[in-house]
DNA sequence: TTTAAATTAGACCAATTGGTTTATTTTTAA
DNA sequence: TTAAAAATAAACCAATTGGTCTAATTTAAA
């Protein structure tokens, strides 16, 4: 294996460019150009464009999972504030990025979720794995009496992250974090015990 | 003006096919084929694909605005239940559609909001006009003491509709209304006075 | 050291992309 | 009734799409 090119490097390029431009707006040739590889090598690594996208989703999902784990483990705050700081951090990142891209998982789910079964499946899988990590923190918050027990930890985690995805629409057409900040404030008022 | 083809009919075709497949995944030729018009006529009506999409967004936004007004005016329920029934109706429609498409405005905003200024502007405009109508009902609910006054009617309307958009991601990758129903239940618990 | 397999390389392919052009027909206004 | 304008029609365009093919090179195993 591993001759000249590194598969992860190609996936990283794919992640960047697909996250920003979407799946159908990006051609294989653009990936080749930005990754600096010839077509033969690309199709040596990946069966098709769809297979490539699937692996990009997987790569991004796994990378973020590790990052999430670290953040939650190292947090010095209480569970509810850990979560609030986490979403604030995501908003900050999107601001640094000039609100250009949003989340690859959300973008792919909305653009291709009903078009390609393999991508829907992979997208759902990565999202669900994130949700498990978030639900862990929610559960701890519930035990401490910080977060409402009227809904399960998983339901609240899903409410949080799906709700956060909902703010990307306005972020992109408004090019502002205003509504995201309002969402953060309102949501964390709503879910507290 | 009005010779052989009807512009609204072309916009309706464009709405259907772009809502389902996205902007970049749909070519002009597909529109021509489904609308049964030659290319010359298309470019007589529309300057470009981008201009066409912009008019599709406008057409859909205005049509829905009229529909919304009617629904809210005819409602026999209290404001908060009017809103809850409205979102339940939207979920029902998406189920009938087999969860295939979601909302054109949300799809376009996420796919093209940071790629084409004209589409972002039009998308935002139509969304904001819907929000005004929803905020009216929220405001009445606040006056009646049904809905929390901790946030403005506009903020709550935005929280509702953006939150609803957030549920489309899971709807599409999960092909189910389960999370939408949970969202509906939780959200209307949260916003009540 | 030889051989088979994996990888790299990019020319090549048919199909499609958004858009233009030219010609014809239809409508409107003078 | 005629001329100008508007609309219809589709052939045509260069550029790009995802993907294949053949050849050369590199690596690993025998």
Question: What can be said about this structure in brief?
Answer:
Two copies of one chain form a homodimer. The first copy, chain A, is an all-alpha fold and 193 residues long.
Question: What does the secondary structure layout of this molecule look like, with pairings?
Answer:
Two copies of one chain form a homodimer.
Chain A: H1 7-21, H2 28-35, H3 39-45, H4 49-74, H5 79-96, H6 104-112, H7 117-143, H8 153-174, H9 178-191
Chain A binds a DNA duplex (30 and 30 nucleotides) through residues 1, 3-5, 27-29, 37-41, 43-45, 48-49.
| Radius of gyration of chain A, whole Å | 18 Å
Which class of secondary structure composition applies to the elements of chain A?
Answer: mainly alpha
Low-pLDDT runs of chain A: none
Query: DSSP strand (E) fraction of chain A?
Result: under 5%
Count of alpha and pi helical runs of chain A: 9
CATH superfamily of the domain at 57-191 in chain A: Tetracycline Repressor, domain 2
How many E strands of chain A? 0
What's the order of the H and E elements of chain A? HHHHHHHHH
Reading off the top of the CATH hierarchy, the class of the domain at 57-191 in chain A is best stated as: Mainly Alpha
Largest interface, C-beta closer than 8 angstroms, per-chain residues: A-B, 47 and 47 residues
Oligomer: homodimer
Percentage of residues in helical conformation of chain A: over 70%
Main pleated sheet of chain A = none
- End-to-end CA span of chain A: 53 Å
What fold name stands as the CATH topology of the domain at 57-191 in chain A?
A: Tetracycline Repressor, domain 2
Shape designation of chain A? elongated
Average of pLDDT of chain A: 97
The CATH architecture of the domain at 57-191 in chain A would be Orthogonal Bundle
